[in-house]
Amino acid sequence: MEKVTREFFMLPLEEKEKYPMAPGGIQGYGHAFVFSEDQKLDWSNMLALGVEPAFIRQPKLWPTNPASFKETLEKYSGEIRELCRRLLAHIAETLGLAPGTFNDMFGEAVQAVRMNFYPPCPRPELVLGLSAHSDGSAVTVLQQDMSCAGLQVVKDGTWVPVLPIPHALVINLGDTLEAISIHSLIGFISNSVLHTAVIVILERMYVYVQVLTNGRYKSVEHRAVTSDKKDRLSIVTFYAPAYDVELGPLPEFVTDDTPCRYRRFNHGEYSRHYVTSKLEGKKTLEFAKINSTTTTVTEEN
Ligand SMILES: O=C(O)CCC(=O)C(=O)O
Ligand SMILES: [Fe+2]
């Protein structure tokens, strides 16, 4: 996947522009999250594609050059989909829920891929590769090439780099690492075709798990920085519930001590809100909060 993606980004601009991201759009080649002429742009180019269910695909935006791109992405995405389902089953178990809880609830899950290419930047102190944000997915699987570090996550209020490890995928997991059977997670990965994968387990989860667990697991704020020496590629799969499935905190996580903090909404609504908002830390999650004006940032981070 890395090879064909890199080949795509190395094509002349005219060739890549055959798959343009429409202004305000989220699929195709270009810059997403641009809302004004004077906005400082992130130092990256992206190719973003909806993959599943089939109706979200925009086939005209799938590159035909390199020739093996489509087939490679299909195969890769099939493997990653299975990985996400298994991860959700294990995450449910870490919460004392039946393994199928999230997968059953999510219906025909929405899967999209974003390939980010960050060219070398002469003044890396002046611009980010990708502004700070949390992802609007349930699980995100991130593959970064070995050429250069760039991904950073917020941990205890500071930015910490997530260094690339050969053949590793980055997946965010829950706060209470002790409670999670890391070995069983690695075990199931090694049974899959992605058998060379090592999992880098971070501390936190993405938006839906934060909402479903009523804040017990939290989404992680992250960003990408640029380098003046090398380019960098990341391939990021977002896995989320079907658009029309309404979700809210599970009753198991709402108690007298932890009153309900999020309202019910569906991924269609959330996704529209997400793509029409600037990347600004965890601000998009305000959408889901009950009494968001009175809830402090510290509480939510
Ligand atoms: O390039 C990276 O490591 C971060 C990419 C990312 O966070 C995203 O595409 O949402
Ligand atoms: Fe992200």
Automatic annotation (TrEMBL):
Keywords: Iron, Metal-binding, Oxidoreductase. Residues 101-241 form the Fe2OG dioxygenase domain. PROSITE patterns: FE2OG_OXY (PS51471). The keyword Iron applies. One of its GO terms (molecular function) is metal ion binding. Belongs to the iron/ascorbate-dependent oxidoreductase family. This is Fe2OG dioxygenase domain-containing protein. It comes from Eleusine coracana subsp. coracana.
